[in-house]
Structures are given as structure tokens and as C-alpha cells.
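Consider today's protein:

***
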Amino acid sequence: MKITLNGKQMEAREGETILSAARRMGLDIPTLCHMEGLTPTGTCRVCVVEDRITGRLIPSCSFPVSEGMDIATHSNQAVAARKTIIELLLASHPDDCLYCPGNGTCVLQRYAQELGVRQRSYSGARNRINLDVSSPSIIRDPEKCILCGRCVRVCTEVQGVSAIDFTGRGSTAQIGCAFNEGLNVSSCVNCGQCVMVCPTGALTERRDVDRVLKALDDPAMTVVVQHAPAVSVTLAEEFGIKPGIDIVDRMNAAFRRMGFDKVFPTSFSADLTVMEEAHELVQRVQNGGPFPMFTSCSPGWIKYLEEFHPQMLGNASTCKSPQQMMGAVIKRLWAPAASLDPKNVFSVSVMPCTAKKFEAARPEMGDGFPDVDAVLTTRELAEMVRMFGIDISSLDGEEADSPFGERSSAGKLFGASGGVMEAAARTAYHMLTGENLKEMRIDAVRGLDDVKETTMNIAGIELKLAVVSGLGNAGRLLRDIVEGRRQYHFVEVMTCSGGCINGGGQPFLTDPERVKARMQSLYEIDRNASLRVAHENKSIAALYRDHLDEPGSRKAHHILHTTYSPREVLK
């Protein structure tokens, strides 16, 4: 069908919205409540456009196109309406932009600038609602909330958690947890996807930057940092570099400029996770289950199991996540070998995930002292780089430190959905056959599909494998498993759609194309690597030889494994 947008005729698609058609023409219409891929609600009205035939203002995000429609996206009437809406939102909004964690990335702030809001046109009583600091991962500031509902929708419709919702009516409406309690006693799994979609500073991660700076300034402390596989292919975006560029070597150099004593890639402990998880899978195959075995790398997923399906906790791998394995190895093996008191070693991890902050604080993750002392998101690391005045684009690359600096590309694949499965399958195949896969790449578990399935024949055993990302998708798959509609031997679950490359601690305003670029970068690293399997990592072999005996040993279980119970969920 043909419609007219801003005086130009164009072909529109049956059933699409005005907003969709306009974006295909390269026209930017502001939105606050709209979320791509979800049913439009049209509640904020910032996206209104003028119907030139009727003279009415209509919400472009929810209004379908029709034959002969004539739309002005930026007429005086439409722009004036948008400006009024922004002014009304600002009427009761806190005037603390300079101190707000959302400063510089706030969508409300950007629209106010674009629409020329330069003074307060309306005045209203400021909302007075207590700050929610109960969560170990997420800070909730209801005073900055504009009731767009995006956090509610991602929590309910995408993640299937429903930890927050609208409460009250009219002028008393707000977004909160059940019974006005804190996030810590809600069903929140700390995934941070609500933080990623919040257009203001109403939802942010709990910052650990100040604690890390204090440790760096303490001469009595040896400060060690690890960085997750997804961080190095994402951090560059914070500094205007093309998405998907791997800057791991420059990142190592930046850590040393900031004063970190040792720099280790979490990809090393991802290899360690592969060894333990593949061994656990092989043991279950040889002993008849229990099946399916679920991966345990994603702390939001483990919390989801504890909250919603505690009867399935016995199916989760007992392996700690790579973050916690690296933390345990640093504190319990490396520190004593370096004649350091573990209590004087401050272990920092840089993760693409807010749930890792929750995980590090779990009582299971330490024996007298925590495995990991502080967790920084990718955003927090970018903040520190700027704080130290480091031009990351001009740094000469540096390698990670020994003895945990070597990693396989299998460990690097952990950053993308399907990567844990692919890495573990490569090593499980070797454990069962004594040979490496002829074709390392397993296409069936790659890509951004919500659910991916395949069957592998290993030593005459047909292993049914599944990969799922996004907790809403995981919940549906889990129900099929529980009700007998699907059967698998091994299931990889990632809390966030696409995996860690789209985690709750990644740069704001992430779009699907950026996620694809990050994923392709990880695949390119794997394709060009000379070391592509965890079991050929010589540093891993040395760690087992000197400290852990072999995968699955009593020593390995003591340091690298844990157990979960719904009675022990951290609140």
C-alpha cells in the first residue's frame, strides 16, 4: 500500500505501524514506552504524529498504516505536543541531573534537549518515594521513574519473572514490588534487563567503583582483576569505536595503567569450567543421569531455578561460574603460592552482568572470605577508564599475566549464547573418544535464535542438546521438559537474550545489530585461533597437575564446585 510521510510517497507494509514505516525511511520519531518486538501500548504519547487528513494527533507506535494515509511526523502541532509531554514529565522530576547515574545516557534528558525545553513550564509536587537499595545488584530510585512501563514489560513479558509492576492509581501510581517491599525479597533474579531498558536513572546497577578505587589506593592490598569474554568485544563501544572490535590487549594495558597488580582473563577459568562441566556431563552419561544437566554459568538463571523451579536444582551442574572459579583459584591457590595472605588480595571481576554482583555476595561463594570482592560492569569499567584519563584507542596492547593468562577460543565463546555448549561439547567428545572433533564449529548452537537444538553422536551415544537464552524462553522450555514434551541430555541456559554479549551490565541503548557484531567478533576469534579446545590449554593442565589432580577430583570439587538450595537463596 502507498502512504505519504512528510510529503513523500512510500510503500508501506500491511499491518505495520506508522513508527515502523517511518524508521524504514530513516525518520527518527521519539518514543519512551515503545519496545521493539513487543506489542505496542501507545501509553506515553511522545511518539504522536499528525494525520494531515483529519488533523488529529495519533500515536505512531501503535497506529497501523492504511492506504492513502498522509502523515506529518514533525509538524508544529506534533512537536508542540511532544514538548508539552516532556515538560509535564519534568514537572515533578528531580533536578539532580549532574549527580544522576543516568546523566549522559538519559533518554528523557536527550528529548528535553532536542525539543528545546530550557525552562520549567509546569510545576508540581515532587514525588517523594524511598530509594530501594536492598538488592545486591540493582538500585531503584522511584523518584526518577516516569511510568513508561518498559521495566515492567521486560521483567514480565521477556524474562517471565514479574518482580515489579504498576501499583496505585492516578497521581499515586508508581512501579514497585509486591506489598511495597524491596527488590531483595521479590522474585528478582538480578539480571539487570530492567536497567538496560530504563530511559532515565530510575534503575541502575549498584556501583563498586569506589570500593575498587579504595583497594587500588591501599598499599597493603594486592589487587587482581579478571575480565569476562564478552567485555573485550563490547568495551570499545563506550569510546565510539565500531561495535564488535576486540580490544582485549589494550584493555590489559588499561588495567595496568589504573594500578591493578595482576590481570587475568576469565576465559581461562571458562576453560576450567569446561573441564569440570564436560567431566560432569560424561559422568552423568555413563551413570544414567539425572537428565537434563543444566549449565550453571549464569547466576540469574540459577536464581530463577531457585525461585520458580526448585525441584529442578538437582539437574543444575555443580560447577561454579567462571567468575567464581577464577576468584577461588586466585584466593585459594595463587595467593598462597605467591606468599600472599588471601585476606590481603582484593579480587575484582569485570562482567557484562549485574547478576554477577549478586553471585559474588552469595554465602556459598567463599570459605571464610569471598572468592570475588567486587564486581564491575562494562559500564563501570568505562567510567574508570575515563576517570584515569586513559585514551584506550591509542594504547599499545599488552598480554595478560601468568599463570592464568592463557585461554582457548572455546573459553572465549562463553560470551555468546551457545558458546558454553559448544566449548563443553568439544571437550566432552574428547573425553569420551580420545579424539578431537574434526569440525570444531557447531553451527546448530550458534546465532541469536531463542532456542537452538541439535543431536551429537559421541562414541555411539546420541546426545540431545539444547541452548536457550532469555529467561522467558527458558521457562517455557523448562515446562516442556517437566511435562515430558521435550527430552535432552544437556541444556545451556543464558539469562539474557543472546547471552553475555547482551547482559544487564553492557552499554546502554544496545540494539540487535550491536549484539550481532559482538557475537560475530567472538566467532572470528574462534575461527582464527590456534588453541580451540580447553583440554589442550597447557596452563589448565599445569593447574590440575600442581593443585587439582584431575577434573572431578575431590580437590577440584572443594574449590571449583558448589551446591544450591532454595533455603539458602540470598535475600
